[in-house]
Specification:
about 450 residues, about 15% strand, six-stranded parallel β-sheet, alpha/beta, 16 helices, Rossmann fold, 15 strands, single chain, globular, Type Iii Antifreeze Protein Isoform Hplc 12
Length: about 450
């Protein structure tokens, strides 16, 4: 609650917080439009392989050309302007940068960038949930050992969910379930980048802006992004995924305490203390009333009769027992809110959520029957999608993590709907992210056991 005061003091005493941005897509654009008007932040550099795209993003988000025309990072640090470059390694190594925002969405690049930033003594805000859910527990530990912060991105749903869970536990409620809303129907699992726009209401003018990546949006539609984000929440909170993963029951905000309680109490959950998604669509395709498509929630249980009595006295919406209640936030503003993570990391030394355990994993599932020799195209693509599993089950099955499914080549046939396993693919073992994932699996396999 005091972050703005801390930022103001920081500017007065040492100047603005110095930020490096890697990746210039939609999330980065949303951050940049806020950074353009924030005197507490100095974006030293924006690194993207497509420099013209990055410059266009900055122009579109309110940056005057003279503010982002520094010819080098040194000049940017000296003058208060911003350099737009294609060399992420230079940005990671530059001594002026205090905190790195990893926003590429590429789990292989994200892992490498995070490790390089940590080794350079910089805080990392990991917008790249794909990398985080694949190897985050090891990255967080590496950062802790280096004396820097590794953080989830505030404004993205996982960090906001972790905040709600933290609130529940701090005030003494038992967390029953936590998650978010999304648009879901079972047939969406087969969606591809060719069909994704049929399910969204974007205009041609919106799509022409360059902000809308069909693979990224398809990942939201086909269930992959939900699996990724709920794995991140599980790893950041210790909540245990259900054995079957996610069910996506339809639920509006008034239904949350009824739907997201254990089946033994009349709800849909196979267990308490888990993660689940609220679909904004009924299975017949009709819209749920007062849906939570853009928001997040937590369902919790009163621990005493008196607490349940207080729920009733203060108008808290509960299930019929009066013991299960929910708190929700109807919106998340993604990159517009990212300054909270930056300030928290630099000024408080605290993450806005971080993976401290390995509880949830995202496994690779075939969208269609795949034959030996097929090159997988990863998240949001034509060949596979990701589903949530308890980490113990994923490791026991030898499942290929979704983050490593891009460009992996099948060496055996995989049936539609079947899990792709490590033994089904040829993977380049020299890639840093592969090595880190192997290290994580070797460490956690002996200590986790199936539910």
């Amino acid at each position: 609650m005091n972050l703005h005061a801390l930022l103001t003091r920081r500017v007065d005493e040492a100047g603005p917080v110095r930020v490096g941005v890697i990746g210039a897509g939609k999330f980065a654009s949303m951050f940049l439009t806020q950074a353009a008007v924030s005197p507490a932040l100095h974006v030293i550099g924006v690194a993207d392989l497509d420099v013209p795209k990055a410059r266009a993003a900055m122009a579109r988000t309110g940056w005057a050309q003279e503010r982002c025309d520094a010819r080098s990072l040194d000049e940017a640090a000296r003058t208060g302007r911003t350099a737009v470059i294609d060399d992420s390694r230079a940005l990671l190594a530059h001594p002026a940068v205090e905190v790195v925002l990893e926003i590429t969405g590429n789990p292989l690049a994200g892992t490498a960038h995070a490790i390089a930033a940590i080794d350079e003594g910089k805080h990392v805000v990991m917008v790249n949930v794909e990398a985080d859910c694949m190897v985050g527990p090891l990255l967080q530990r590496r950062a802790q050992q280096a004396g820097v912060v590794y953080s989830m991105a505030y404004g993205d749903q996982p960090a906001l969910i972790c905040e709600l869970v933290d609130w529940c536990r701090t005030v003494g409620f038992e967390v029953v379930a936590a998650g978010k809303g999304t648009k879901y129907l079972p047939e969406y699992h087969r969606s591809t980048p060719d069909t994704v726009w049929d399910h969204y209401g974007f205009t041609d003018e919106q799509l022409a802006t360059g902000d809308f990546n069909p693979k990224m949006f398809n990942s939201f539609l086909d269930g992959t992004k939900s699996a990724i984000e709920m794995a991140a929440v599980a790893n950041g909170t210790g909540l245990e995924p259900q054995a079957h993963g996610l069910s996506f029951p339809p639920a509006g905000v008034d239904d949350l305490p009824d739907v997201f309680r254990p089946a033994s109490a009349g709800g849909t959950l196979s267990r308490s203390g888990t993660v689940e998604i609220a679909s904004s669509l009924h299975r017949d395709g009709t819209e749920v009333e007062r849906d939570l498509r853009w928001g997040v929630y937590v369902t919790f249980e009163a621990q005493t009769d008196y607490a349940a009595q207080c729920f009733a006295e203060y108008g808290v919406r509960t299930d019929e027992s009066g013991r299960y209640a929910s708190l929700y936030r109807p919106y998340h503003m993604i990159g517009l809110e990212l300054g909270v993570s930056i300030a928290s990391a630099v000024l408080r030394g605290e993450p806005t959520g971080a993976p401290t355990q390995f509880r949830g994993d995202v496994v690779t599932v075939a969208k269609r029957a795949l034959t030996s020799g097929t090159t997988l195209d990863g998240e949001g693509g034509y060949t596979v999608y990701g589903t949530l599993r308890p980490a113990a089950d994923s490791l026991a099955e030898g499942a290929l993590p979704l983050g490593l499914a891009h460009s992996a080549v099948l060496r055996s046939d995989v049936a539609e709907g079947a899990v792709v396993r490590w033994e089904d693919v040829d993977v380049d073992e020299s890639v840093l992210a592969v090595r880190v994932r192997r290290e994580l699996e070797a460490e956690f396999r002996p200590v986790v056991s199936p539910n």
